[in-house]
């Protein structure tokens, strides 16, 4: 402490504070960049870069004296910024677009978040009971705008009936093919194309719907819900992992865990963060409880009104709705 005060005395308080802020800013920027790239392809790039720099140093005259290799690496390093911008253009665009906004499902009211997830769970159960394939990407921290661009833009409240009707596989319904995207608690696009995973450990029996779901979950921190047309099973993809064959309860638990987890670019390490996590999980449970109570009459109403649609009046759907509300109750 004495030494720090000495530095302040010798250099003067203004200069010392300037240096302190200078170092703090650089420290914070590097820390955020490391958190941002943690667990992504950029980490491999970083290791590659360290190897290149080490080779650059040892190829100098005073060490190995590899003139051509040294010149080549020098050229590479001189153009490094341009190379980085080209390789990471999408990520940079997304990171810049992300500034100043937060996902509703992570930053909005816990009650609204619970409602949105409940509608997605109900829709998935309904789709699953009829073996209608579906792919739903729910945005968290990473912006999904890039993936909505080529889809069909929608701006609608997330409801079970809307999600169900979007995926009904009619020829006249172009929305059913591709992925539906939920951003800030609203349906923003359907018929979107998602990147397929290159992971060769993914089971060979899984087709492109599942591969697209895993692919997006590798590139972003979105939660992906996949309903299989072939088997009717519900899976959730998150951070490159696919959790398969979920019932409504398991799906709810899994999604709640994902949405109460730290964003991809943050780590919950401090006591304050842990306290925030705990508080948000208490709020989430209270909201879920309130939603269950409020939803009881609303669900009945929805079931009645959906009875007017020939497709939705099949017994399978009534069963599906019951299954959701039953399993919902069972969580409490
Ligand atoms: N890259 C993609 N992005 C978004 N949706 C896609 C993509 N690829 C395929 N799909 C959707 O998946 C459907 C094809 O699913 P496919 O049968 O190949 O997959 P699957 O994983 O075996 O799923 P299922 O179990 O439902 O059959 C397409 O009709 C389309 O709706």
TrEMBL record:
Enumerate the UniProt keywords alphabetically. Answer: ATP-binding, Cell membrane, Membrane, Nucleotide-binding, Nucleotidyltransferase, Transferase, Transmembrane, Transmembrane helix
Example GO BP: cAMP biosynthetic process
The EC number(s) attached to this protein equal 2.7.7.85
User: Taxonomically, which superkingdom?
Assistant: Bacteria
Task: Please list the residue ranges that the record marks as compositionally biased, kind Basic and acidic residues.
Answer: 320-332
Report TM segments.
Answer: 16-35, 42-59, 71-88
Q: Which reaction does it catalyse?
A: 2 ATP = 3',3'-c-di-AMP + 2 diphosphate
Q: Which GO terms describe its molecular function?
A: adenylate cyclase activity; ATP binding; diadenylate cyclase activity
* One of the Pfam families matching this protein, by short name: DAC
Q: Which region ranges are annotated with the description Disordered?
A: 286-332
What family name appears in the similarity comment?
Belongs to the adenylate cyclase family. DacA/CdaA subfamily.
Summarizing the function annotation, the protein's role is: Catalyzes the condensation of 2 ATP molecules into cyclic di-AMP (c-di-AMP), a second messenger used to regulate differing processes in different bacteria.
Summarize the subunit comment: Probably a homodimer.
What is the protein name stated in its UniProt record? Diadenylate cyclase
Q: Organism, per UniProt?
A: Bradymonas sediminis
């Amino acid at each position: 402490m004495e030494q720090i005060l000495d530095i302040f005395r010798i250099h003067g308080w203004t200069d010392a504070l300037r240096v302190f802020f200078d170092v703090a800013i650089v420290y914070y920027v590097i820390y955020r960049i490391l958190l941002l790239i943690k667990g992504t392809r950029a980490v491999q790039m970083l290791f590659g870069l360290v190897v290149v720099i080490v080779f650059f140093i040892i190829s100098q005259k005073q060490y190995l004296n590899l003139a051509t290799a040294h010149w080549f690496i020098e050229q590479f390093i001189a153009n490094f910024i341009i190379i980085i911008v080209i390789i990471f253009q999408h990520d940079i665009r997304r990171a810049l677009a992300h500034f100043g906004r937060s996902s509703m499902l992570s930053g909005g009211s816990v009650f609204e978040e619970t409602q949105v997830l409940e509608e997605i769970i109900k829709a998935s159960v309904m789709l699953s009971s009829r073996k209608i394939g579906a792919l739903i990407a729910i945005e968290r921290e990473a912006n999904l705008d890039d993936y909505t661009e080529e889809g069909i833009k929608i701006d609608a409240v997330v409801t079970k009936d809307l999600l169900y009707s979007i995926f009904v596989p009619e020829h006249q319904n172009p929305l059913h093919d591709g992925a539906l995207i939920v951003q800030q608690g609203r349906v923003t696009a359907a018929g979107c194309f998602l990147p397929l995973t290159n992971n060769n450990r993914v089971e060979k029996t899984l087709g492109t719907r599942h591969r697209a779901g895993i692919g997006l979950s590798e590139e972003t921190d979105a939660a992906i819900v996949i309903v299989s047309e072939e088997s009717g099973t519900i899976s959730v993809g998150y951070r490159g992992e696919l959790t398969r064959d979920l019932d409504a309860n398991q799906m709810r638990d899994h999604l709640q865990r994902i949405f109460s987890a730290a964003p991809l670019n943050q780590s919950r390490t401090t006591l304050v963060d842990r306290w925030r996590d705990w508080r948000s999980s208490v709020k989430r449970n209270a909201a879920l409880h309130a939603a269950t109570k409020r939803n009881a009459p609303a669900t009945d109403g929805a079931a009645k009104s959906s009875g007017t649609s020939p497709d939705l009046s099949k017994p399978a759907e009534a069963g599906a709705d019951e299954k959701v509300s039953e399993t919902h109750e069972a969580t409490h």
